[in-house]
Amino acid sequence: MSAAPHAIGALPGGSGALALDTYELTKRFGSFTAMDRVTMRVEPGTVHALLGENGAGKSTLVKCVAGFQRAEEGSILIDGREQDIANPIVARALGIGMVYQHFTLAPGMTVAENLLLAGGKTPALIDWKAKRAELKDFLAITPFSLDLDARPSELAAGEKQKLELLKQLYLKPRLLILDEPTSVLTPQEADEVLGHVREFARSGLCTVLIITHKFREVMAYADGVTVLRRGKAVHHCRVADTSPARLAGAMMGGEDAEASSSAPAALPAARKPVSAAAPIALKVEGLRAQGDRGTLALHDLALSVRAGEILGVAGVSGNGQRELVEALVGQRPRLAGKVSVMGQPYSARRGENRSLKVRSLPEEPLRNACVGDLSVAENMALRDFDRPPLSRGGVLNFPFWRNRAREWIAEYGVKTQGEGAPIRSLSGGNVQRAVLARELAGDINVLIAANPVFGLDFAAVAEIHERIVQVRGKGGAVLLISEDLDELLELADRIVVMSEGRIVFETSAEGAERHVIGAHMGGGHHEPLEAVA
Fold this sequence. Notes:
Layout: E1 20-29, E2 32-42, E3 47-52, H1 58-65, E4 73-78, E5 81-83, H2 88-93, E6 96-99, H3 111-117, H4 128-140, H5 157-169, E7 175-179, H6 187-202, E8 207-211, H7 215-221, E9 224-229, E10 232-238, H8 244-252, H9 257-261, H10 263-270, E11 280-290, E12 296-306, E13 310-314, H11 321-329, E14 336-341, E15 344-345, H12 350-356, E16 358-361, H13 365-368, H14 376-380, E17 391-392, E18 395-396, H15 398-412, H16 428-439, E19 446-450, H17 458-473, E20 477-481, H18 485-491, E21 494-499, E22 502-508, H19 514-521
Parallel strand pairs: 3-8, 3-9, 6-7, 7-8, 13-20, 13-21, 16-19, 19-20
Antiparallel strand pairs: 1-2, 1-4, 4-5, 9-10, 11-12, 11-14, 14-15, 17-18, 21-22
Helix pairs in contact: 10-17, 15-16
């Protein structure tokens, strides 16, 4: 960046990139220690990455720095001086800004109005001519082009994320905290945002602390990295001195962590190519379905998956993926089109699921795949409670339900007070594990999986990925819908891209180019493709 924007509400406490230190920072929630004596150094003018499993303490750490939570013990130092950051107003006064994982925009206000609101001190009368000129000058020194008169409700997810970042940059932060800033972006948009953030830091204007789960982003854009595990800071290093395997090892723990961390990525390389003679296990033709607002969400969508193949469906959230899954599993009416499994018509009825051996791992499993008030054991039995050995002669065999549930709880590492606990009492990740145990049991012809590792920690992700590949290895067809392109590149044999309710691109995973997929994810091509088996 060639110059710094003039910020509204000039901040006290100096200017330019600051140094951040935490010393034995500890935060408890009741008897649970979310952050345990975390000591960390973030050098001024650098991009510092925070890595760790879900629940490792990353969000707790940055919320303490940003004033949204207060630690019981330890210190936060800004430029070597201890600070009591009691609330976000104090943090802002110190020059600390934060971009959240979830949008905090006022949807009915314009881009210009959202930028002005970020300052927190909006005058009763605004000289809009002067302010618009100021905002245009500000946007001119950023790589982001946004219409000042547009409203967030009209913006795509990537544009909303850019506006969230612009809100903070406009205030000239000395420390910018980013919480999973690329989760809704295409690869190109992610590179654009992170590239700009890195240049902003290297200009000496700002220090950046970024929470991410993507090793590629850490290696490409960060200078330093801290790994948290179970609330403790277990690893600090310069990015130039490490590798994804070492970072994964630190996240997982144990002497064999580095070796095991690379196992999932190696799985696809060890597999045999899908035979062109393999039967088509799942075929979708001309599928149409409405979205929640009554408009068409799926436009004559066509795809097919062969036995022994993983077909990955990429796309930015909100382009029809959820509607596709719901239309396939019977949770959303189909307006038109045909779906067949192993050559037989498939309308997602319970009897067809059993006879055709179709299983599904939906998003939000507590809402889509469970009955919250029923026990873990009862939810695990939903598929086959009326079949032997769970039922004999119309009599339900509850002891068998409970025994099998205990076995699955142990096998899948489900953390619960017991098989009799209501499934709604489990954390999101443990609900997912319980559903996985049920859906992956027995023979499978077709597995429909939507973001199957969302909310799971790093070790569980590797385990679930391996189980999905095992379904493929046993001859099952897997339709894997994921917003994580790295996950698709790792697991899939072929990848298709969904944009605006259509399949707009297809490639073999082996020959896939990230930037090409990203261009189609971003809406660079809107002509639907014919299904290719």
